[in-house]
Amino acid sequence: xxxxxxxxxxxxxxxxxxxxxxxxxxxxxxxxxxxxxxxxxxxxxxxxxxxxxxxxxxxxxxxxxxxxxxxxxxxxxxxxxxxxxxxxxxxxxxxxxxxxxxxxxxxxxxxxxxxxxxxxxxxxxxxxxxxxxxxxxxxxxxxxxxxxxxxxxxxxxxxxxxxxxxxxxxxxxxxxxxxxxxxxxxxxxxxxxxxxxxxxxxxxxxxxxxxxxxxxxxxxxxxxxxxxxxxxxxxxxxxxxxxxxxxxxxxxxxxxxxxxxxxx
Length: 264
Description:
Radius of gyration: 19 Å
Number of helices: 6
Oligomer: single chain
Number of strands: 5
Strand content: 5-15%
Shape: globular
Structural class: alpha/beta
Helix content: 25-40%
Distance between the termini: 25 Å
Largest sheet: 5 strands, parallel
């Protein structure tokens, strides 16, 4: 049982990885996060949680950490400088190419560790594409499930803290405090959305949106003003522990209980 950093291995060493080794791919984003956070916020969080979880899970199963994806699907922030994004078609093609490359070797299990909510739906599609195209067992983990996908949001954010708010700002104050400017943090919660019974974040009817739809003026959807590093530390540690437990299951998961092992 071991943790390995994929890019530190030689070609022959990669060939020696077992078929139950879980390859973990951190998936972040480069996109505006308001005036107080760096554009690499999601990338930093994905990297931190993925590496921490992979190392912890590697104590009891085989895990290899792939280099992370920084450029992903961020068109909801395309209006802002600093957002570098791929189309859905391009990102699906990139993920398929990575899966094809891994499947040419011994890897048969691939887990995405995602830290950008805008990637979630597309990564869900990629799970099945990679399964049917390349025979990989595929999994999607979240560093933190966003509020618009059923995750928790601070009470003061009214269930609307989905971008650059309390959790992300706290996480970055823990991981990279030198990159956070709390003097520029402002509450930017689209409270008018609470007037809709069915349509909204985490409600029965979802809607297409871009981060400049909400008239907050700064690209933030949430309230970062109460963020602190200690809360961020707890968030990251909890995400690492939960993701490590999930990776241990990924290493042994077979959907056909008691059935013969097969790749397709």
